[in-house]
Write a structure and sequence with these properties.
two-stranded antiparallel ribbon; 5 strands; three-stranded antiparallel beta sheet
Length: about 240
């Protein structure tokens, strides 16, 4: 058996480190003298300690090393996978460091030639451009007729629930399109014709659109509008 001092000298680690490794269960002393608490390590434990040092040099964490050592029958397999993954990680880090080294060489060259370190900005042109309004989102789902406004609100939020549940669809349409602003400032929306037609229908019949459809369309077809297919598009 080797004393903790002799073991630490052979492995080139401090006794403090060995005590900490024992505390976290990474490598325990082979024997502890019950009378004086002296710690001793077996010769066979040198291999385990040197493995720990090797894996630490690859930047494995102590927890990762402990999992590998305690993997039992899967030790070789788990060690191989861990090393292969670490190899890819080191390759990635090496590539990043090579890019930084190349950039540093360019900066040194610019400074040596009397150029600013930020001279690369001279080759970058920033231009603001306006893009036309476009459809960004489309949602299609099956909903109950009386749940249409709520479902629309779930998909697109305010002001849509208020917009589609308003009793005065014409005013709501104009308000939504910017009717409180100056003439010529209205926002375009392809559903305005349908909304105004719905408003006229409500004022002329005193019924909502779905009520009117139930009485004058679905009843003639001997069907019930238990479900309505809706396709809504947000043009914001």
């Amino acid at each position: 058996m080797l004393s903790i001092g002799a073991f630490s000298k052979i492995c080139k680690v401090s006794t403090k480190t060995l005590r900490y490794y024992a505390e976290i269960g990474l490598i325990l002393p082979g024997e502890i003298n019950p009378e004086n608490g002296y710690r001793y390590y077996a010769i066979e434990q040198l291999e385990t300690m040197l493995l720990i040092i090797r894996l630490k040099s690859y930047n494995f964490s102590l927890e990762e090393i402990k999992q590998i050592i305690e993997s039992g029958e899967l030790y070789e397999e788990k060690l191989y996978v861990a090393l292969a993954n670490k190899r890819e990680e080191i390759k990635r880090l090496l590539h990043e460091q090579e890019k930084r080294l190349h950039q540093l060489e360019c900066d040194l060259s610019n400074l040596k030639n009397g150029k600013s370190i930020m001279s690369y900005l001279d080759d970058i042109n920033v231009e603001f451009v306006e893009v036309p309004m476009m459809c960004l989102l489309s949602v299609r789902k099956m909903v109950q007729a009386d749940q249409f406004s709520d479902e629309y609100g779930v998909c697109f939020g305010n002001p849509y629930p208020k917009y589609f549940s308003s009793e005065d669809w014409v005013r709501s349409s104009l308000d939504f399109l910017g009717g409180n602003g100056k003439i010529g400032k209205f926002k375009y929306a392809p559903i305005i014709g349908i909304d105004i037609l719905s408003g006229i229908l409500i004022k002329a019949t005193g019924k909502s659109v779905i009520e009117f459809a139930q009485d004058n369309l679905f009843s003639l077809l001997e069907s019930t509008p238990s479900q309505v297919r809706v396709s809504v598009v947000d043009y914001r």
